[in-house]
Amino acid sequence: MQQVSLKMSVDEVQALLELVDNQLFRMKFIDSKIPGHKGSPEKLQLATAAVSRLKDSFQRAKGHRVRGTV
Fold first, then answer.
1. What pTM value is reported for the model?
2. What are the domain boundaries of the chain?
């Protein structure tokens, strides 16, 4: 998988996290209830992993300990 590096301010990451967290919630709990919706478990898993990594980066930038790190 190709990787991308990106520099963002902590405020930009926080704003982006709010948006993607809301969208992820919608993908998990709302879209699945819409008639005719075709889910994509692979896409949901990738999105969940990406949001988790973004949250960890944000926490590190704020000076908090992140799970799995010392």
1. 0.73
2. 10-61
